[in-house]
Design goal:
Helix content is 33%, strand content 22%. By secondary structure, it is of the alpha+beta class.
């Protein structure tokens, strides 16, 4: 079945068009009834249109707390905001998790789920002027298959077993088996330049097809981007440039937003949100993406954490509601399971499976045997992440577990996560629960059934995950039953202890409009403008 979509600007949806058309018809009908229109209404309408009309020009300053790490270009992390500014993806999800065209204009799935034919845009060029072709799609998939790239969706890329080019703008991807999350791969996979990929992972040349070009990367300070005048979307982007500025200290980051030096940030710590809530020049928007769940990771090879009873005791000891209220500023959902409410794997029973019960935690610890427990806990050396780690430290102390905090810079922590080099405990954030549920368990480093950071292994876990992953039926009763089994194993084994589902909290100037994020929190500024 071919899914064909018109190449309309992303800010104009069919539903929105119908709503606008309906409103227009109603106003026209009222005008016919009254026979006249107010001059004041005309003036107000004209002023409102003027305020909302996109304006070309200006440079947007985005405050980030961690610099771009080129070696992690193909792995999703908190340093991925620039991906969709420099590059494009094949497709993008809408709010209902339905894929929409980007560099792929249409697709035709084979009836047996073992292949997909992609038709590609013919009007796309890279920043250096080279034309985008099917060879670039083939390279993008093979690039993610390379273990050196440390891409979370490598397993899905490896399911592509062959390629058939049909000219420059059509390609068939042959699949070794059906996969439930192929369009997760298409939204995750940036289409980079195959001729300069090694320069890209060094940060010296980021040649993409996206709306902005790299002007300069200043390690430790951030990225400077300028408008791509040859962008394939007519008239886009509106902005002349984007500056992604590293502001590591929370107070300085908040100050830069309040002063107008920065107009956008997603990295204001929860405790600092109160400082901007009352600012008349700023808005706070919570994206219910569920792509940043806070969790405690457990190394199951470290005694006594190799005993699931001890791990469960830790899960009962943690006060998730307090973490959301005090540490995340109220922006989040306390949850023992990894799934946001938008996920088909979400259940209220899973979310509340572990609640704050220190007495039960002490009983479990006593039954497991350890009389004195001292454990290291790695955390990111960022204000918000430090606050979460301190909350975990406090809760565990109440049940007799002494925790030594190990602050670590984000790039080093990400590499330790990938290489399975974590200490007994760690706190970080994970994504991949916001897309197809099977993606979490075959792609996210903490949960990967074949090789996870906790070093947890289970033939049952692998079997259930593989069954959920190798189906195209992502919403049937049998698939939902598989999701419940995955959740059951995660909660029972507690090698990853989820704390809270948190979306991205956007703090932005009221002068900024048209900003969006994709499911992997790639920043999309195609339609963004400053007034």
């Amino acid at each position: 079945m071919t899914e064909q979509y018109p190449s309309t600007p992303p800010d104009v949806s069919r539903r929105g068009t119908l709503r606008a058309a309906g409103a227009g018809a109603l106003l026209l009908g009222l005008g016919g009834l009254t026979g006249c229109r107010s001059a004041v209404s005309d003036a107000n309408s004209s002023a409102e249109k003027s305020r909302s009309r996109p304006k070309r020009g200006g440079t947007l300053s985005v405050a980030i707390n961690t610099d771009f790490t080129p070696s992690l270009l193909f792995a999703q992390s908190s340093q991925s905001y620039q991906h969709r500014l420099l590059y494009n993806t094949l497709t993008r999800y809408d709010g209902d998790l339905k894929p929409q065209p980007e560099l792929a204009t249409s697709w035709d799935y084979a009836a047996d789920g073992r292949g997909i034919t992609l038709k590609l845009r013919e009007d796309v060029t890279y920043h250096d002027g080279r034309k985008f072709t099917a060879d670039d799609v083939i390279f993008a998939v093979k690039n993610l298959q390379n273990p050196v790239r440390a891409a979370q969706l490598r397993a899905t890329a490896l399911a592509v077993s062959g390629f058939e080019k049909r000219g420059d703008h059509e390609v068939v991807l042959e699949l070794a088996h059906p996969v439930a999350n192929l369009f997760d791969l298409f939204e995750f996979m940036i289409i980079t330049d195959r001729h300069s990929v090694e320069d890209a992972v060094k940060g010296t040349k980021l040649n993409g097809t996206g709306p902005f070009r790299l002007k300069k990367w200043s390690p430790g300070s951030g990225l400077s981007l300028v408008r791509n005048d040859a962008y394939w979307q007519p008239g886009r982007p509106y902005l002349d440039g984007v500056e992604l500025r590293v502001v590591a200290q929370a107070d300085a980051l908040v100050s830069s937003l309040r002063s107008g030096q920065s107009q956008l940030s997603y990295q204001v710590p929860g405790k600092s949100l109160a400082a901007v809530k009352g600012n008349p020049d700023l808005t706070i928007t919570s994206y219910d993406t569920g792509d940043g769940a806070a969790y405690v990771g457990v190394n199951t090879t470290v005694a006594p954490l190799d005993d699931k009873t001890v791990r469960q005791a830790i899960a009962w000891a943690l006060d998730r509601e307090r973490i959301v209220d005090q540490t995340l500023g109220g922006y989040g959902l306390a949850s023992a399971a990894p799934w946001p409410k938008s996920s088909p794997a979400f259940t209220e029973a899973g979310r509340t499976h572990y609640t704050h019960n220190p007495a039960k935690a002490r009983r479990l610890l006593k039954s497991a045997g350890p009389t004195e427990l001292r454990l290291p806990l790695l955390h990111l050396s960022l204000p918000g992440e430090t606050a979460i780690a301190e909350s975990v430290q406090y809760d565990l102390k109440q049940v007799g577990i002494a925790v030594e905090l190990q602050p670590t810079d984000p790039a080093t922590a990400q590499k330790k996560l990938i290489s399975q080099d974590m200490p007994a405990l760690w706190t970080m954030s994970h994504g991949f629960a916001q897309v197809q549920p099977s993606t979490l368990a075959v792609s996210a480093y903490p949960f990967n059934e074949a090789k996870n950071t906790s070093r947890y292994r289970s033939a049952t876990y692998t079997k259930v995950v593989r069954e959920a992953w190798t189906t195209r039926d992502t919403a049937g009763a049998a698939t939902n039953a598989q999701y419940r089994k995955i959740s059951g194993i995660l909660l029972d084994q507690a090698f990853i202890i989820d704390l809270a589902i948190r979306g991205r909290v956007q703090v932005a100037s009221k002068k900024l409009h048209g900003v969006t994020l994709n499911k992997f929190s790639y920043l999309n500024l195609d339609d963004a403008y400053l007034v």
